[in-house]
Description:
Layout: E1 8-13, H1 19-22, E2 33-40, E3 43-50, H2 56-70, H3 78-84, H4 92-107, H5 117-122, H6 140-147, E4 156-157, E5 163-164, H7 175-192, E6 198-202, E7 205-209, E8 218-223, E9 235-241, E10 244-250, E11 255-257, E12 263-265, E13 280-287, H8 290-313, E14 319-326, E15 329-334
Antiparallel strand pairs: 1-2, 2-3, 3-6, 4-5, 6-7, 7-10, 8-9, 10-13, 11-12, 13-14, 14-15
Amino acid sequence: MSINPILTVRRVAAALIGSAALALGSCGNADRWQISEGSVWNTTFTIKYRSDRDLSDSIAAVMREVELSLSPFNPGSRISKINRGESMRADSLILRVFDISARVCEASGGRFDPTVSPLVNLWGFGYERRGGSSFVEPSVESIDSALALVGLTECRLDSALNMVKKAEGTTFNFSAVTKGFGCDRVGEMLRRNGIDDYLVEIGGELALSGRNPRGEEWRVQVDAPVVDAGPSHTPLLTIALTDRGVASSGNYRNFRTDSLGNRFGHTIDPVTGRPVSSDVVAATVIAPDCATADALATACMASGREGALRAVGSVAGAEVLLVVASGDSLAIERSPGFPEPR
């Protein structure tokens, strides 16, 4: 999510997409497929759904609702007001992501923790940007001070939905679950409108339901961890699935480099207060909902191979594919139920 959020929606009716898209429909199938795509939360989205109605306005409304509740980059959001101590009352969206975060925090042994935001900000990856163009590693003293504010297990929501913090300076950044949660919320809206066949993608996270235009399960490409100067989507493998959420995380694209050339990834360990040093290069998680998949993917990056497999294995319906560094090479490891490549 950006400091000045941008939400643009481009509406494309199935009849205007072209022969390649139309060819995806089964023979004699008169169903129309809608596509809404654009930018939100400093990333892009694409939403495909089978309907005669254009629901782009409703999609925009759902994303705006999520933004005004959960974006720490929007000073007017509910979570920003809680972080500043102006109002401690949560809303129903915060309640849901808090519950998901607490479950994944427990499953990962504390390696997933949305109160890590003081440390994320300290390392220059959060909603508080540090001045200057050069990156300087934080001092041990500043890391220890930030660590004293971290601890989701020491926070709670009381019976009146007021957020009770570990410390006055404790803040919440649910960004590692919000994209996935946004996918789920759009999917819920589509279902309320009688739509069962859809793909919702926000920033690479996916909520899938029903069938694709071919009448088959949705095909999902998992990217290989390739480092280059710009966005890269080199395919690693393709899987088929539906009625699931899918999320990926990796440290190979979002990092900072100091004057000596040392590279620091964006995943911060809530236990040590430092960027993660792990054998897991990338993780792709499948779960019953996209928000849980999103949180688990981040937890995997902070946990290492064994911890990642253990965390995902403790969540019902979740599976994972890990890209693991093994010496000078990379290896792929899948949990038992992760789909076979197509």
